Amino acid sequence: MRSRTLVRSLLFASLLAGVTAGTVSPSASAADQSLTIGTGSRAGVYFQVGRALCRLVARSADGAAPACTAQPTAGSIANLRDLRAGKLDFAVVQSDWQYHALNGTSSFTEDKPDGDLRALFSVHGEPFTLVARRDSEIAHLQDLVGKRVNIGNPGSGQRGTMEVVMFAMGWENSTFSLAEGLPASQQSLALCHNRIQAMVYVVGHPNDSVKQAVRLCDATLVEVSGRPIDILVAKYPFYARMEIPGGLYAGNPHDVQTFGVKATVVTSAKVDADTVYVLTKTLFENFDAFRGMHPAFRHLMPERMITDGLSAPLHEGALRYYQERGWL
Questions:
Q1: Are 221 and 237 in contact (CB under 8 A)?
Q2: Cα-Cα-Cα-Cα dihedral of 238, 241, 245, 249, to 10°?
Q3: What digits encode the pLDDT tens for the residues 127-137?
Q4: What stretch(es) of the chain map to CATH 3.40.190.10?
Q5: In whole angstroms, how far apart are CA 136 and each of 70, 93, 192, 218?
Q6: What is the DSSP secondary-structure string of 100-118?
Q7: Going by DSSP bridges, is the β-strand pair 256-268/90-94 parallel, antiparallel, or unpaired?
Q8: In terms of CATH, what superfamily is 126-261?
């Protein structure tokens, strides 16, 4: 990994000059290099974050950029472990799992704290979203007891956050008549086929998977509230109350109250500072273009992105750019 980092550092030194000047001279070695951003399911917004960043890198470098790949993955927890193992250069993860990986808590107790974890910025908010068939008689979170529920695939932030909710509610897998472990890309179809009666998703909105469930099987968004949720939000700084606006999905005209996290982009202290500086600069120097790449990005504000949801220290490359802009 060290030789890969050294070569990339030299490459990004030339890209840095190009981003500053507006053009980049072609590099013979650029095509041989690559950046890999761990995302999530192709059906989720994490994949769109990674793809948008790669598009901006390619556009800003005028064809001289290294290959940038938005890699579909199992989700936040898997991303954080792969980042630590050097299998990814960057990753999109939930703010709660960023915290747990940094501190070696929750699902990362056996991994020990990741002292090399570094933050770049946060992006969109991600409400904990509960979607149910209208014929399931699920009107509140508490109504999931005895139902067929997709709790998410192992390694995903979706599964991890659902397990936190289950613990807060005093639930186990046996609480449900079926605790399914499908990835996000498969759950809406399973809902429509009545294999499951409800699905959960920690995701930015609007979301294609939720839209599909609503359109194809007349599903409804369900409020997630109650004293156990109040305690979660009060206890953990990476959670916040959120609402899913009414009218985003057909047949769901009312705002839905829930809680949620932030999607964040992270890396490792082992990734060289020039690489991180250029990626960070590329995003914020092309910010209007980025906000236009997905509806979930539309209301992002730089001053919030560099602080909200970030538990890990800022990477020195990102910090350098923010200080140059006078933001920190």
A1: no
A2: 70
A3: 999 999 999 99
A4: 2-125+263-325, 126-261
A5: 37, 31, 12, 11
A6: HHHHT-GGGTTT---TTEE
A7: antiparallel
A8: Periplasmic binding protein-like II (3.40.190.10)
DSSP letter (8 states) at residue 185: H
Contact indicator for 90, 230 with CB cutoff of 8 Å? no
Give the C-alpha separation, 56 to 290, whole Å: 8
DSSP-assigned states of every residue in 253-320: -S-EEEEEEEEEEEEETTS-HHHHHHHHHHHHHTHHHHHTT-GGGTT--HHHHTTTT--SPBPHHHHH
pLDDT per position as a tens digit, 219-237: 999 999 999 999 999 998 8
Is residue 284 within 8 A of residue 321, CB to CB? The reply is yes
**Is residue 246 within 8 Å of 294, Cβ to Cβ?**
no
CATH code for 2-125+263-325?
3.40.190.10
261 token code pair: 């996290």
Q: How many residues does the chain have?
A: 328
Task: Using a pLDDT cut of 70, give the percent of the chain over it.
Answer: 88
At 324, the amino acid letter reads E
Which pair of tokens denotes residue 59?
């556009």
Task: Write down the residue that tokens 């590099």 correspond to.
Answer: 27
The upper half-sphere exposure of residue 251, i.e. CA atoms within 13 Å in the direction of its Cβ, equals 17
